[in-house]
UniProtKB/TrEMBL annotation:
The gene is Echdc3. May play a role in fatty acid biosynthesis and insulin sensitivity. It comes from Stercorarius parasiticus (Parasitic jaeger). This is Enoyl-CoA hydratase domain-containing protein 3, mitochondrial. The keyword Lipid metabolism applies. GO terms for molecular function: hydro-lyase activity. The lineage of its organism: Eukaryota, Metazoa, Chordata, Craniata, Vertebrata. Belongs to the enoyl-CoA hydratase/isomerase family. It is found in: Mitochondrion. GO terms for cellular component: mitochondrion. The keyword Transit peptide applies. One of its GO terms (biological process) is fatty acid metabolic process.
Amino acid sequence: GFCRNIVLNNPRKRNALSLAMLQSLREDLLHDVKSKELRVIIISAEGPVFCSGHDLKELSSEDDVKYHSQVFEICAEVMTLIQKLPVPVIAKVNGLATAAGCQLVASCDIAVASEKSQFATPGVNIGLFCSTPAVALGRSLPRKVALEMLFTGEPLSAQEALMHGLISKVVPEDKLEEETMKISHKICESSKSVLALGKATFYRQMTQDLDTAYKTTTQVMADNLNLRDGQEGIEAFIQKRKPVWSH
């Protein structure tokens, strides 16, 4: 199985999520997603800023309300798409992630960041409260941490972001590639169908109450056993051999 690298590649514009950038990110995420070989997607960026959020030039009053709505709608679509994809998505952050860029990190399944990375939702400082980034932030962070970020616009350091659960790991900049690939290779060793089932179920049960979540997952565990790879994995474990996944 292989890993797809998506690189935000407009460092001159601080990798702003312009409408064009969002459309191409959506295309990249969906490209070949049904491929049996694709196992993991890594999102990284060129330059000192991972992603600065929306392109504010597109949000000035010269453009009409319909255009503004379109920008926010496709942004929401991309953020939710990440969690709907059948493969894990890892953010590999080296630098500043602000506003919708911070939302992007919060929306990924796993996030590895270098020590110099910072995370902020500074929209309030320019009179545009980060309400859509707050959706992802409020689901990743304790409420009081998210609200302090949203009310003040002050950044979290990589260490603080780790402590509060916005990211999975902090590493020195020169270890970022290695650490991200280590996680990616580990994911590639597992069955794609089992991971796809597990990921979809995880997000589904997170929004349910405890009893419903156990009903959902109890059924899924039984379904998982019925998958060819479920049986193969258990047989391999009993026979003390490496499993051979169907794909």
